[in-house]
Amino acid sequence: MTFVVPRQAEGQAVEDPFWPRMPVGVDGLVYGGDYNPEQWPEEVWVEDVELMRQAGVNLVSIAIHAWALLEPRPGEFDFGWLDRLLDLLHGAGISVNLATPTVVPPAWLYRAHPEVRPVTRDGIELERGSRATFCPSAPAYRQAAANITRKLGARYGDHPAVALWHVHNEYGAPVGSCYCPESATAFRRWLRARHGSLDALNEAWGTTFWGQRYGEWAEIEPPRVSGTAGNPAHELDFARFCSDELLSCYTAERDILRSHSKLPVTTNFMTTNCKSIDYWRWGREVDVVANDHYLTAEADRNHIDLAMSADLTRAVAGGRPWMLMEHSTGAVNWQPRNIAKRPGEMNRNSLTHVARGADAVMFFQWRASRFGAEKFHSAMLPHSGTRSRMWQDVVRLGKDLGALHEVRGSLVQADVAVLWDWESWWALELSWRPSIELLYRERVAAYYEQLWDARLTVDFVAPEADLSGYRLVVVPSLYLTTTAAAKVLHDYVAGGGTLVVSYFSGIVDANDAMHPGGHPGALRDVLGLEVEEFLPLRQGEEVSLDGGLHGDVWAEHIRLEGAERVLDYLDGPAAGGPAVTRHRLGAGSAWYVSTRLRGAALDHVLREIYPQAGVETHDDLPRDVEVVRRRGVDADYLFVLNHTDTEVRLAASGTELLTGQRCESELCVPAGGTAVLRS
Prior knowledge:
The chain is α/β, with parallel strands linked by helices and 679 residues long. It has three domains: 30-176 and 243-407, Glycosidases (TIM Barrel, Alpha-Beta Barrel); 416-613, Class I glutamine amidotransferase (GATase) domain (Rossmann fold, 3-Layer(aba) Sandwich); 625-678, Immunoglobulin-like, CATH 2.60.40. Helices cover 30% and strands 20% of the residues. Strands 5-4-3-2-1-9-8-7-6 form a nine-stranded parallel β-sheet. Strands 12-11-13-14-21-20-19 form a seven-stranded mixed β-sheet, sandwiched between helices. The protein is globular and about 75 Å long. The two termini are 15 Å apart.
């Protein structure tokens, strides 16, 4: 295999030698979680710290939701309890990830400044009482957030317990946008900076359609609910604005902290599950990328979604190690049915993230809450305490992470690249598309699952990233395709690469305007074909292809312009026409799949492509056995994660780090177990 560290155009992290990339002073892999001692009497803190030591915890996140306690009245601060807590943790050798508590403004701020309440698209003003319920554009919120951040930075910037700054919490969830007058004013400023003039904005937005032309900046409002579908370019720019406005909240707090401290600063992402944030842009602004991931408990093979989240997070980190800031020891509390994890599943979940680049494993939360909305959420120390199986699993995981200390800093070895683009996700799922079943994440997950089953490790890449290190690049969905991104793909294929593109890609530019010259627009030349007509299918309707394959949701009437047929439609609205094509261009080839294939059908097509791309699959293991490699300076580390109920044996040699045993020729991984082999 060829090891590649992706070089992102949008996702490339900014090199800055001044700020460290991981928590300072924490040796080995990071282990811990959110700690909310304000929910407990101080005598419980001493017990907590001793149990943390027993579990191997070396980092805890503090004060995430504590604004009302730290500043009970405007300008009146109480840091005494936090001083005592930090001293207690430091004395026990446990480092702190200290948060700015700006995700939950105190009640006094809402009372004094009701304009900080966010307003929904349909005009409903949201009340406090939850979390992340504020308008990010409100000056009163910005000023109050800066003030508490400044106080924390000045007081704790040099505290020996603090190893990392944690700004806010999960930006974009649950409120990712606000449509109030304050947001409207900020949106107009953002539009001026992006477009420069009203003439340019009118041109970009195509406002001659439906008589939407603007003559003054003050006429522009957020895209609130109207009589029917709005201007898609307007909505797309507003999505960009909302992501950028939250980012400016983060950078403002980060810069304040940097003025008081030389410690790294981060915030926690939700890479595959937060649609409203463009993490390619955000990844460049944090010193270390941190991510939250929670299993969809009822989903079949949910460990694959976990792997996809980890791979995307590593990509946002520019290929560097990253932090798993939150996941769960067991069940969460907010899914329709909160399924408990089976024995060994928590350990396996955690080490899957490590296998795919995480140098930190942390949870929400340390001690289960007795009250509040998350009292049914699992924790490292559950309600049943240290007599529970969960506690024993937590202690075991701490020992396992200790045994893997040398893995820290090693990098993941990937086989293929998959394009991911938040802007294309936004644009694809706006109103009035040809089918309501054109879903961005569904297509990415479908292709990712087949790559996972072939034991191919994925690097996600931004649309304009350098692709030269990859033999195979997959584009599951890229409805919005810039001219620059299309050129990158064209040059990649001409230079010898193999490209796979799925349907309804290349259609519009950055303003959601159709590319001229027919579909698939920007990708017409590289794919060597024209899509003359989209042919969405009825609900439940299928089409048959050569080889006994079946597709659904979508078909297309394709005219070949250099591409060759690989598979044809046998029936349906495109019967007799090409369904899967290949275009030989320069030294490479571009494949196009014009219908929704899933499971075995999609696997069949990809299995034709792998050998032509020179990509080696690994089919000698049972289904649901995961194999990932991290490469260090002096050693390689092979992670084998057995998601099955039977023991697995594979040919391998080296030292198994979790047991310390030498493996001469065969590695045995028990049912539901994990092994990490150093070679």
